[in-house]
Amino acid sequence: MNLPPKVMTIFGTRPEAIKMAPLVKALQASQHLRTVTCVTAQHREMLDQVLDLFAITPDHDLDIMRQRQSLNGTLRRALAGLETVFAEERPDLVLVHGDTLTTFAGALAAFYQKTPIGHVEAGLRTFDKYLPYPEEINRRLTGVLADLHFAPTSVARDHLIAEGVSPDIIYVTGNTVIDALRTTVKDDYSFVCPELRQLDPALRTIVVTLHRRENWGEPIAAACRAIKRLLQDVPDTQVVFAVHLNPVVRETVYAILGGLERVLLVDPLIATDYHNLVARSYLVLSDSGGVQEEAPSLGKPVLVVRTVTERPEAVAAGTVRLVGVEEENIYNETLNLLTDQTAYQQMAQAKNPYGDGFASERIVQAIEYYFGLRDARPADYL
C-alpha cells in the first residue's frame, strides 16, 4: 500500500510561525497528505509564543538560537540540524516561508537531498540585495531553488515570471497571514499582557515595531526621536512599542523612550494580543513586512520606516506609505495622519490587496494537484 505524500514544513521565527500556522492546520486536515513540522527556533521565545497559541507541537525542534547570533552561525546550525531531520523523515515535499535564514537553509538542505521545494510567500522583491538585509537575498536564492511558488499576489507572480519561472509552477494564493487574522481578532478580546489592559481608551494609540537589521543604530534612534516629539506635540496620543528582544534594538529604544509618559514599552506580544492591539489602534509605525499585510486588513494606516518595500501592492492601494529613515520625515508624515482627517481616512479606507483568508486552502489544493491527487488546478486568488 502506497503511503500518502509526506509534506514537511520548516520555519523558525515568530513572523514565519504566524503565517505558517494556518497552513500547518490545513495540511493536517487534508485526507491526502501526511505532514511533519520542523522548527529551527531561530527565534526561541517569540516562536514558542506562536506555537502555544496555535497549539502546534513540532515533530522536530533544532533549538539553534544563540545570544547575539551571527548570520553565518545561524545558517550553519540550521543546515547541520536539518541534515539529520531529512535523513530521518525523507519528505516528498518541503515547504518554507518568506525570507528568513531558516527559509534559505530549509530550501538549501532540501536541494542537497534532491527533495522538491515549495516556497510560500514567493516573488516578493525590492531589487536591492541589501534592502532588506539579508532577507532580499534569502528569498531570491530560495526562489532559484523552489519547484513550486506560492505567490501572494499577481505582482509577486509577475516578478517570478520576469525571472524566468514557468507560470505552470506559480500559484497565486493570497497571503496566509490573512488566514491567521480570521482566528485571532475578536470584538470581545481581552488582552493577555496586563499593561495593555491599562491603556487609556480616550487616547489614540500608535503601535510601533522596529527591528530590521539595516535599521539598527541611527535609523531606529531617528524614529524614536520622532515619536518623542509627536507625543509632546499631539497630547491625545499614546504609544505602544513592542520592543524586539535583540539587545542592539532594546538599548536604542530604551535609551530614548524609556520612562516617558504615554509610552508603553513591552516585550514582543503574542499574536492575539498584537493583532487585537492593531485592530484597536489609530495607526502603525513599523519596519516590519508582515504588518504591511496585517494592518490594512484591519483598516489601519501603516507608515513604513524603510526606503523600499517588497510589498508595493499596499503602497499602490494607498493603505501603506514609505516614510524613510530620517527623523523629520517620520515626524511629519505621522503628524499629518494625526491632524488631517481626510488624509487619514484615505489610507484607512483603502482596499487591502493581500487576500481573503483562504490562502492555506489554496496551497493545500495546489500541493494535492502537484502530486496528482486532485484533477483540477486550483483557481488563482486575484
Our count of domains comes out at: 2
CATH homologous superfamily placement of the largest domain: Glycogen Phosphorylase B
**Text of the CATH class of the largest domain:** Alpha Beta
Portion of residues within helices: 40-55%
The 3D shape can be described as globular
Query: Based on helices, strands and strand pairing, what is the structural class?
Result: alpha/beta
Adjacency order of strands in the biggest sheet: 3-2-1-4-5-6-7
Pattern of helices and strands: EHEHEHEHEHEHEHEHEHEHEHEHEHHH
CATH second-level architecture of the largest domain: 3-Layer(aba) Sandwich
Query: Distance N terminus to C terminus?
Result: 39 Å
- Which strand-content bin applies to the residues? 5-15%
Number of helices: 15
Provide a descriptive summary of the structure in words.
The chain has a seven-stranded parallel β-sheet, with helices on both faces. The protein is built from 15 helices and 13 strands. It is globular. The mean pLDDT is 96. Helix 1 runs parallel beside helix 2 and helix 8 runs parallel beside helix 13. Helix content is 44%, strand content 15%. With 382 residues, the chain is α/β, with parallel strands linked by helices. It has two domains: 186 residues, Rossmann fold (3-Layer(aba) Sandwich); 155 residues, Rossmann fold, CATH 3.40.50.2000.
